[in-house]
TrEMBL record:
Keywords: Endoplasmic reticulum, Hydrolase, Membrane, Protease, Transmembrane, Transmembrane helix
UniProt family annotation: Belongs to the peptidase U48 family.
Entry's localization field: Endoplasmic reticulum membrane
GO molecular function, one term: metalloendopeptidase activity
Short name of one Pfam family: Rce1-like
Protein's name in the database: CAAX prenyl protease 2
Catalyzed chemical reaction(s): Hydrolyzes the peptide bond -P2-(S-farnesyl or geranylgeranyl)C-P1'-P2'-P3'-COOH where P1' and P2' are amino acids with aliphatic sidechains and P3' is any C-terminal residue
Principal location class: endoplasmic reticulum
């Protein structure tokens, strides 16, 4: 946080002297503190909305999930107002509509929906192989189940499925990526914003400690160890979806990847080491990671998605677009 004060605060690490920055109502240092406070307030509001309902039931109970749907959807729907207020306080003019800046746009939407999801599935090649090996049905039967309207109807009435696959990915990406990144990027630059934004996302998941301690689901040490691991995992995942959001300029890709990762869960590497087909599985894990690293830049090439709102925002505020993320 010390980097957020004094002369160390710059809109970007490289400036263009020939372009004059947009006028701001506040100085650079105060603008950054407004940005950080706005992000912190959003994170607290999102988590706090989960606890406005008094209940003795666990978090997975359908009644609890339904109530939390209501409050979290209200907070998420109001979150763009925080970005609007930030814009008015700082005087930063994005040069585009607020919805476009937050990733709601039609230009390049089809590749933005498909390619990040494909990239994420490649990363999970090993776990997908593991899932198919352990599944009692063959590929044809599995596809029939997936495509059957009855299966989807069952899912849509399952509160846990709706939470994990629809509501949580949509609202979390909206609040922690679409709203926070536009506020952080002019202050820190795109690169640092990719790693700063997930800290709010990771800390927001610490509220699970309250649930676990309340219902004594495990020992205190195990609960805090699990929370530390979850913070690390969610922070890394948050950096990945922030990267996707910046490189594609769309919200749909991070939402679909988030939903897919919620379905897959953390890769069961220990189970793979004890699996009867251990070596093919480990080869699948290694191949997936290798292909992911190889295809990360090509499949997120900004030329596939049109203009990038955050890069345009930084250009208007007097900075040069960062080569790695904007080209």
């Amino acid at each position: 946080m010390a980097a957020l004060g004094g002369d160390g605060l710059r809109l970007l690490s490289v400036s263009r002297p020939e372009r004059q920055p947009e006028s701001a109502a506040l100085g650079p240092g105060l603008c950054c503190w407004v940005s950080v406070f706005s992000c912190f307030s959003l994170a607290c509001s999102y988590v706090g909305s989960l606890y406005v309902w008094k209940s003795e039931l666990p978090r997975d109970h359908p009644a609890v999930i339904k109530r939390r749907f209501t409050s979290v959807l209200v907070v998420s729907s109001l979150s763009p107002l925080c970005v609007l207020l930030w814009r008015e306080l700082t005087g930063i003019q994005p040069g585009t509509s607020l919805l476009t800046l937050m990733g709601f746009r039609l230009e390049g939407i089809f590749p933005a929906a498909l390619l990040p999801l494909l990239l994420t599935m490649i990363l999970f090649l090993g776990p997908l192989m593991q899932l198919s090996m352990d599944c009692p049905c063959d590929l044809t039967d599995g596809l029939k189940v997936v495509l059957a309207p009855r299966s989807w109807a069952r899912c849509l009435t399952d509160m846990r499925w709706l939470r994990n696959q629809v509501i949580a990915p949509l609202t979390e990406e909206l609040v922690f990526r679409a709203c926070m990144l536009p506020m952080l990027a002019p202050c820190t630059g795109l690169g640092p914003a990719v790693f700063t934004c997930p800290l709010f996302f990771g800390v927001a998941h610490f509220h699970h400690i309250i649930e676990q301690l309340r219902f004594r689901q495990s020992s205190v040490g195990s609960i805090f160890l699990s929370a530390a691991f979850q913070f690390s995992y969610t922070a890394v995942f948050g950096a990945y979806t922030a990267f996707l959001f910046i490189r594609t300029g769309h919200l749909i890709g991070p939402v679909l990847c988030h939903s897919f990762c919620n379905y897959m869960g953390f890769p069961a590497v220990c189970a793979a080491l004890e699996h009867p087909h251990k070596w093919p599985l480990l080869a699948g894990y290694a191949l997936g990671v290798g292909l992911f690293l190889l295809l990360l830049q090509p499949l997120t090439d900004p030329r596939l998605y049109g203009s990038l709102p955050l890069c345009l925002l930084l250009e208007r505020t007097g900075g040069a677009s960062e080569t790695l993320l904007c080209s």
